[in-house]
């Protein structure tokens, strides 16, 4: 029992020393300051002429990759391409695909299967006939044809 008390007291002492070290480290970090002077600089605007207003040239234009010479053509091509691909293909294509009629008639086949099972249960016959295929029409190989072939049932 005394060993448990000693272990607990050592753990508490370790936690206290770690907390003191952490606060000392944080207080040392708080004394470092940076100057905001780089954000306070003012740049004199360049002289603007009437031609600059008439023909504005985009300084930081990054092309979407459709047209490298005209910003207007590039933006129009990008917007129309994304509209067609996202809205028409993805949205309307998914809507159309989801509401297509059953072309392989799976719903009809399942419904007919359930109706046939119900009819056979009410009639009291086997659900699947053991003679579904006429045994006389099946041609099986003879024992000589099989020879040493392993047959797994």
TrEMBL record:
It is found in: Mitochondrion inner membrane. Keywords: Electron transport, Membrane, Mitochondrion, Mitochondrion inner membrane, Respiratory chain, Transit peptide, Transmembrane, Transmembrane helix, Transport. This is NADH dehydrogenase [ubiquinone] 1 beta subcomplex subunit 11, mitochondrial. Accessory subunit of the mitochondrial membrane respiratory chain NADH dehydrogenase (Complex I), that is believed not to be involved in catalysis. Complex I functions in the transfer of electrons from NADH to the respiratory chain. The immediate electron acceptor for the enzyme is believed to be ubiquinone. PROSITE patterns: PROKAR_LIPOPROTEIN. Complex I is composed of 45 different subunits. Interacts with BCAP31. It is a single-pass membrane protein. Its main location: mitochondrion. Coiled coil: none annotated. The chain crosses the membrane at residues 82-100. The lineage of its organism: Eukaryota, Metazoa, Ecdysozoa, Arthropoda, Hexapoda. Belongs to the complex I NDUFB11 subunit family. Signal peptide: none annotated. It comes from the Eukaryota. It comes from Drosophila lebanonensis (Fruit fly). It holds the Pfam family ESSS. The gene is LOC115620647. GO terms for cellular component: mitochondrial inner membrane. InterPro entries: NADH_UbQ_OxRdtase_ESSS_su.
